[in-house]
Amino acid sequence: MKKFLALLLAALMVCSLMACAADKPAETTQDTADPAQTDTTEQSDTTDEAEPEDTTDAEDTTDTESDLAYVQGKGTLVVGITDFAPMDYQENGEWIGFDADMAKAFAESLGVEAQFVEINWDTKAMELDGKNIDCVWNGMTLTEEVLATMDCSNAYCNNAQVVVVKSDVADQYATAEDCMDLNFAVESGSAGEEAAVAQGYNYIAVDTQADALMEVSAGTSDACIIDLLMAGAMIGEGTSNADLVHTVELTTEEYGVGFRKGSDLVAALNEFFAASYADGSMMACAETYGVQESVVAQ
Length: 298
Known about the structure:
Elements: H1 2-23, H2 35-48, H3 56-63, H4 67-74, E1 76-81, E2 89-91, E3 94-96, H5 98-110, E4 113-118, H6 124-129, E5 135-141, H7 144-149, E6 151-152, E7 157-166, E8 183-187, H8 191-199, E9 202-206, H9 209-218, E10 223-227, H10 228-234, E11 244-259, H11 265-278, H12 281-288
Parallel strand pairs: 1-4, 1-5, 8-9, 8-10
Antiparallel strand pairs: 2-3, 5-11, 6-11, 7-10, 7-11
Domain Solute-binding protein family 3/N-terminal: 76-293
Keywords: Signal
Organism: Candidatus Avoscillospira stercoripullorum
């Protein structure tokens, strides 16, 4: 009987152990997962995310669009000018002059319309780069500064910077040295201002060459420095400044038309200049404004 009870207790213990083993939850492998495997999965998820669209090509297309296409697309050639006879000036509300008429003809050759905008001469390069204008076409001297900030056409006119004084004292100022004690007026940012600086003259800067002439006429400045071409049209007998004359030529120079750096309008204008010189239309326009002797052969 004792033996039987011992066997029964042993059997019950075995059954109990088996039941406990069956009730124990299965162990998970989450805590023992390989960290490297986890990182790979996360990297894979990141890689599969949509990458930002590459807009480089679109931006390059905008940045490298030709100026010629830009001008023809909008239908206008915006020309930066100042009031500067005989190159650009108004008559009956219309801009005329050698430069203005040639700009109109060039615009027509491109199939667009010339539109004239008066600018501050000091900020002409900024006006170009900001696309407020498409070119500077205003008897612009091809100085080192201009050539550094713009791409320019071939020279089309010769010019000089000259001293203008009242006719009753002109014989006293026959040389650059004679003018050292004069007080000058010059257009701000112009070749005339550069000439004044180079000579060491005392001067004030005004907005335009026309304003510089007015200073001399009014007696508020002793002299001014302006372009020879302007002097030919604006002073002396038959003009509103009949009592003014020019004396010393301080510099000799050339005019060109300025465009944005890299502009393909430069080549287009050079071709137009060559064609208009060859067919005589450039010289005919120059004769209209009395500047034919200054025209440079193309």
